[in-house]
Amino acid sequence: MSDPTPTPSETSASSEALESSTDGDAVVATATNDSGEEFVAAVEEFVRSDDDIVFDDVGDALDDLYNSSMVDVEDGQMVTGSVVRIDRDEVLLDIGYKSEGVIPVRELSIRNDVDPSEIVSPGEEIEALVVQKEDKDGRLILSKKRAQYERAWGTIEEIKESTGIVTGPVIEVVKGGLIIDIGLRGFLPASLVELRRVRDLAPYLGRELEAKIIELDRNRNNVVLSRRAYLEETQKEQRDEFLANLAPGERRKGVVSSVVNFGAFVDLGGMDGLIHVSELSWKHVDHPSSVVTVGDEVDVEVLEVDLDRERISLSLKATQQDPWQEFASAHQVGELVYGRVTKLVPFGSFVQVGEGIEGLVHISEMSQHHVDLPEQVVTPGEELWVKIIDLDLQRRRISLSIKQAAEGGIVAAEYQEHFGEHAYDDEGNYIGSGIEGEGPSEAEEAWAAYYAEQGDGEAPGSPEPSAESPAEAETPAEAESPAEEEAVVEAEPAGEASDDSPDA
Q: Ranges of Low complexity compositional bias (predicted)?
């Protein structure tokens, strides 16, 4: 058996081989007791030398390496990042900054009241604008909406310079119009949604609409659109053809599309025409809605066609009987008619003597005696007889007289029919027929029938003789009795009973 103990020469060779094999790596070796202390000292020196290298090369540059790995941001800067978290009221975005950026829900979309999870998803790469580098809580505030605005404005300005036509969905119905998503919040006024004004805008929500840009203000972040302008351009040929086939005086059927303070618009089946409030009725109209409502089918007459402005003027009253013409055909100067006081003015009173027909009783024609104020003789709502003293159809004016009515005269035919022929002589003068003490006179009964037919309520008067009975008090009487042809009985002014009345 050989001795395993190495010889001195072998030990020396092993040490040299070990030192050459380390070459800066960790030293692992076995040594003899004689060389152990020298070996340990060598290792300690190597470790100290290695620590110096690490601290010199890395320790001083650690902050620089950390800072160089982050992006540098400033307010108003556009950044791109990845969505790392979605909360109910905010979204966190990693843009490589020292902390995640926060996008408040109000800065997430141009739409209001949105669910963040419907706008972005985790891991999605999105673009945002730096609103505030550091708020009071040290957070980085970002805005996806404003970044979208910045990108969209450039596109919208280019479109405005070219065709001016944009397309987008209706995302909101607001007071006065619609909001369309065109990358920006484009406002479409209600009056410019269609060729005619639309009252109910709710059905447009969610619809994709094409419109023309008519106003652009980047400083105010304001974009105004017009769909009507777009429709007018695309439908110009059809509109020109429609107008060319429309002539003044022509009558058309249409449907009331909208009612406004100054009149009503009627859809003629291709374009809208306007009926001005003055053309709605022969009577005075307080508001167009008292005459027509949206959806009514009406017959109208074309008054004017403006080809340059593409406007059509219509009339509803032109298709109806002119009450003035009708009244003038049925009455003549000198006749007595029954009317109602409608208004008092300093110079007299107006009396309605027919449907939509009012005449003026001048203060000088109110009584035989001097009158300072009209209310000394009549009151609004009072019914009385008046005489027609002038009828100007062209100017649509009727002059009436209470004073002359009290002197008697020929009663208009429509009143004779209700009183009965026996109550008048051959010339139409009222002679009366009531018999005192035998209940209502035939005249009173006739008045009751007349008022029932006209729908104006009960006849003024009662079985007892009184100043309120139109047949006895307010009906002018110029009776010529067969026995006393020369005796003339005059009725007192309206509202006063005559002691000489043949029926008294």
A: 1-23, 452-474
For 216, list phi and psi in degrees, rounded to 5. -140, 125
Q: What is the pLDDT of residue 24?
A: 42
Within-domain flag for 332? yes
495: tokens are 């509202």
Check if the beta carbon of residue 470 is closer than 8 Å to that of residue 456: no
User: Mean pLDDT for the chain?
Assistant: 76
Are the C-beta atoms of residues 159 and 166 closer than 8 Å to each other? yes
Question: Are 220 and 283 within one domain?
Answer: no
User: Which tokens in the block code for residue 116?
Assistant: 């963040």
Q: Which pTM value belongs to this model?
A: 0.43
First-to-final CA distance of the chain: 176
In angstroms, the Cα distances linking 299 to 211, 293, 318, 440 are 33, 14, 10, 46
Q: Which residues in the chain come in under a pLDDT of 70?
A: 1-71, 417-504
- The range of the structural domain enclosing residue 362 comes to 323-405
In this structure, the answer to whether residues 128 and 93 fall within a common structural domain is: yes
Q: At a CB cut-off of 8 Å and minimum separation 6, what does 193 contact? A: 177, 178, 201, 204, 227, 228
Contact 385, 359 (CB under 8 A): no
Tracing tokens 């100290």 back to the chain, one arrives at: 48
Task: Say which amino acid occupies 295.
Answer: G
CA distance 84 to 434: 102
Number of domains in the chain: 5
Q: Would you state the structure tokens that stand for residue 30, as one six-digit string? A: 């076995």
Q: In this predicted structure, what is the pLDDT of residue 428?
A: 58
Which residues, at least 6 apart from 457, have a Cβ–Cβ distance to it below 8 Å? 451
pLDDT tens column, 185-208: 899 999 899 877 787 899 999 999
d(CA 351, CA 150): 69
Q: How far apart are CA 418 and CA 44, in angstroms?
A: 140
Q: At which of 233, 251, 282 does a domain end?
A: 233
Bridge partners of 210? 167
Gap between the Cα atoms of 64 and 95, Å rounded: 19
pLDDT at residue 389 in the model: 93
Domain boundary pick from 233, 258, 277: 233
What's the pLDDT at 432? Answer: 55
Residue 424 lies in a domain: no
* Residue 347 CA from chain centroid, whole number: 43
Q: Identify the H or E element spanning 337.
A: strand 335-345
Residues facing residue 127 across a β-bridge: 80
For the chain, how long is the longest CA-to-CA vector?
190
Looking up residue 98, the CATH number of its domain turns out to be 2.40.50.140
**DSSP state, residue 363:** G
Residue matched to tokens 């009584």: 367
Kindly state whether residues 401 and 333 are assigned to the same domain: yes
- So what's the pLDDT on residue 283? 80
461 belongs to a structural domain: no
